[in-house]
């Protein structure tokens, strides 16, 4: 039976992805911080859909979190054919208003952990008849450079961070830059693996009905503006998995988000940056 490892699986998009996969008889390895929610999710999905589900409660901002996840799988004899890097979070507000440690934790969860998990599990995935990596990003599109993949992705982060510092995505600067890294890394890795059995897909959800905005303490103005086109976690999960199983390199989730992405590409950067600054009130 196919088996998927999902980070950030206790709620939101990750929880919805887990349920969609359970419906098609996929065994699940669920990873997140909240042990109570993970246990409840694993039991519910097992009893409802007749699949096997196990879980590991771990803080992904720990330096060795990805290695502990891999070792847990090896010790339990689990072999996966789907790696879904969904966990991620952000901090709202100006750069200097948060401690350096908090910024570094965001970067670990949003960038380091997906890279490390891809590195650890890729040999296992390559041994499967068919395998998938799904990375949940958010926004920004930068040139991928296969062969210099991590270097190029790090420069994508630096570009987004630098412009964010001067009003590119004010209020969510490190978060946006980390997702630019994930986008570039994913596209570069997909090209490197294009002749293999492993496909890499990166998706870009927009505003989604999760607790992200509350956790990130996004401004009430931004939350109110997003309500008109917020998608449910279930719809985002379904569209993300459709893109993954179709072996697409990337997919923007939702028509409104596709239009928005085009408009941001079309407009001069300073105009889009000013509009974002007005939304996030910085």
What layout of secondary structure does this protein have?
Layout: E1 3-7, H1 12-23, E2 27-32, H2 35-49, E3 53-57, H3 65-76, E4 82-85, H4 100-126, E5 131-136, H5 149-165, H6 173-192, E6 198-204, H7 212-216, H8 220-226, H9 233-245, E7 250-252, H10 255-266, H11 269-280
Parallel strand pairs: 1-2, 1-4, 2-3, 4-5, 5-6, 6-7
Helix pairs in contact: 1-2, 1-9, 3-4, 4-6, 5-6
CATH architecture title = 3-Layer(aba) Sandwich
pLDDT averaged over residues: 79
Global Rg: 18 Å
Low-confidence segments, given as residue ranges, are: 140-148, 164-170, 215-226, 271-282
Helix content: 40-55%
Total separate domains: 1
How many runs of DSSP E, i.e. beta strands? 7
Beginning-to-end CA distance, first to last residue: 50 Å
Give the CATH superfamily. NAD(P)-binding Rossmann-like Domain
Structure commentary:
By secondary structure, the chain is α/β, with parallel strands linked by helices. The chain has one domain (3-280): NAD(P)-binding Rossmann-like Domain (Rossmann fold), CATH 3.40.50.720. Helix content is 54%, strand content 13%. It is built from eleven helices and seven strands. The protein has helices at residues 12-23, 35-49, 65-76, 100-126, 149-165, 173-192, 212-216, 220-226, 233-245, 255-266, 269-280; strands at 3-7, 27-32, 53-57, 82-85, 131-136, 198-204, 250-252. α1 runs parallel beside α2 (35-49) and α5 runs antiparallel to α6 (173-192). The chain is globular. The N and C termini lie far apart (50 Å).
């Amino acid at each position: 039976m196919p088996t998927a490892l999902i980070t950030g699986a206790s709620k939101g998009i990750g929880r919805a992805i887990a349920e969609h996969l359970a419906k098609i008889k996929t065994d699940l390895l669920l990873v997140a911080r909240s042990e109570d929610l993970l246990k409840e999710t694993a039991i519910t999905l097992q009893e409802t859909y007749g699949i096997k589900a196990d879980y590991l409660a771990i803080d992904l901002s720990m330096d060795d979190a990805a290695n502990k996840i891999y070792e847990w799988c090896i010790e339990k004899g689990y072999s996966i054919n789907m790696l879904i890097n969904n966990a991620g979070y952000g901090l709202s507000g100006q750069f200097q208003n948060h401690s350096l440690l908090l910024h570094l934790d965001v970067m670990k969860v949003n960038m380091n952990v997906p890279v490390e998990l891809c590195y650890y599990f890729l040999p296992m995935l390559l041994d499967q008849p068919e395998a998938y990596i799904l990375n949940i990003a958010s926004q920004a599109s930068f040139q991928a450079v296969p062969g210099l993949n991590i270097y190029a992705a790090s420069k994508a982060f630096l570009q987004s961070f630098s412009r964010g510092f001067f009003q590119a995505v004010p209020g969510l600067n490190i978060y946006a830059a980390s997702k630019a890294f994930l986008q570039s890394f994913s596209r570069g890795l997909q090209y490197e693996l294009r002749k293999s059995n492993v496909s890499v897909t990166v998706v870009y959800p927009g505003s989604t009905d999760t607790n992200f905005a509350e956790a990130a303490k996004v401004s009430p103005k931004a939350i109110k503006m997003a309500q008109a086109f917020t998608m449910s976690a279930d719809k985002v999960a379904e569209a993300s998995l459709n893109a993954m199983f179709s072996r697409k390199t990337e997919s923007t989730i939702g028509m409104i988000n596709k239009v928005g992405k085009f408009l941001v590409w079309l407009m001069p950067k300073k105009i889009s940056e000013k509009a974002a600054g007005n939304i996030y009130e910085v």
